[in-house]
Design brief:
The protein is of the alpha/beta class and about 250 residues long. It is about 40% helix and about 15% strand.
């Protein structure tokens, strides 16, 4: 299932040295930050492709991202993060050279700006075959208004269904192999995508690790908009969990 390490094989080491990474950035209305995010992501070691999926933005996110050096694809209307991730992975696959190792997929948020390069530590454990998926552990974000309710619900569900307890189960910055990504598709919809990804992969024997990354992004605040965001997040996480519990029971009954 997992990519094997072959330290004793010069051929394998030579092939691994050719491994490349594609940064996939789902983005909606990120015109203010996307250029800095793209330029910063291009500096990550082993990255040779930065792809922005403009998920129905109403501003000029796509134009600014393209000018900053990204390959850009656009959804004509907002389809959600999971759909943007699937679109991005499909475009990367089309750009992977036949007969070469498929690129690792590094998913990051469009609002990381200059700190995007600090997702680089996520690449190493996947690149070296130590994990199938790495997840960013973010430092406390100034202005964050949540109380950990959604995080706690996701963490508890993941632990009960996989035996692994993540610290930040909702972190969206993740690096993974092509094999792992495809094993988790179709992705959970809406804000349940990260919870669903983790349950699907770890429960199937894929290895996930969390890696500290010094990242700064725009957190949801304590205002009405932030409260509604967390309510939507909780709904989508619960839907993702319920779907996987149902699937598990259905499989057990077969």
């Amino acid at each position: 299932m997992r990519r094997a390490k072959s330290a004793s094989s010069q051929a394998d080491e030579k092939e691994l040295s050719r491994q490349r990474v594609a940064v996939v950035i789902p983005a909606k209305d990120e015109a203010r930050r996307i250029a800095a995010t793209v330029r910063s992501a291009k500096a990550i070691p082993h990255v040779d492709l930065v792809l922005v999926v403009d998920d129905g933005s109403e501003d000029n996110t796509q134009d600014i991202a393209r000018e900053a050096g990204a390959v850009v694809v656009r959804h004509s209307h907002n389809r959600g993060k999971a759909s943007a991730m699937e679109t991005g992975a499909a475009v990367v696959a089309m750009r992977d050279a036949r007969g070469k190792l498929p690129r690792l997929l590094l998913f990051i948020d469009g609002d990381l700006a200059e700190t995007a390069v600090n997702t680089a530590p996520l690449v190493d454990p996947v690149f070296n075959g130590e994990a199938d998926m790495s997840i960013a552990l973010l430092p406390p974000q100034p202005g964050a208004g949540g109380h950990g309710f959604v995080v706690g619900a996701a963490r508890k569900a993941i632990a009960s269904m996989t035996g692994w307890t993540p610290v930040q189960p909702l972190s969206g910055m993740r690096c993974m192999t092509r094999e792992a990504f495809e094993a988790a598709t179709p992705l959970a919809r809406g804000w349940g995508v990260e919870t669903g990804l983790t349950i699907d992969l770890v429960s199937r024997g894929y290895v996930a690790v969390e890696v500290p990354c010094d990242l700064k992004h725009r957190p949801s605040g304590k205002d009405w908009k932030g409260t509604m965001h967390r309510a939507s997040q909780f709904r989508d996480v619960q839907l993702a969990i319920a779907a996987r519990r149902l699937r598990k029971r259905s499989t057990a009954d077969v």
